[in-house]
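Late entry, evening session. Most of the bench is empty. Finally got around to the prediction I had been postponing all week. Sequence below, unchanged from the version circulated by S.P.
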Amino acid sequence: MAAAPALSNSAPKLESEWDEARIESALARLQEMHAQLRHLRDAVPRLIDPMLVQQPSPEDLYSTFATNVTTIHSDVKDFSITFQNSVFQEILMKAEKSRAESKEDIPSWRVTEHEDWLDVRGADTPMDAAMGGTNGAVPDAS
């Protein structure tokens, strides 16, 4: 996957028209956020995984569980920082404004049209294929 653009907390003034480079940068940030969200969807299963497998000792169970809690906490914190970033908030405001201006051109997302939306480990969806075929997931470090 290509390197994401460096995050900046300085929000440029909201303009009505964005140039192509700015739109591509915004799409890259949205893609990054999508990957983080897909990764967080697997947080609870990762949290309880040590409890589903027989551990050699209670200490090993605790150690594995504590490591998973720390990792997931870090993932949630990273997501929160990205989401609260002023540049990302500007992108969301621009998307909201654009959708309000052209409601008839943007179809609503329907779960019935995407029955595999919850399948994190399933086959690539068309959106994932557009994002490089990684199923939107961030590779697991373990």
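Two things to note before I forget:
Residues 1-14, 122-131, 133-142 have pLDDT under 50 and may be disordered.
Residues 58-84 form the longest helix (27 residues).
Will write this up properly tomorrow.
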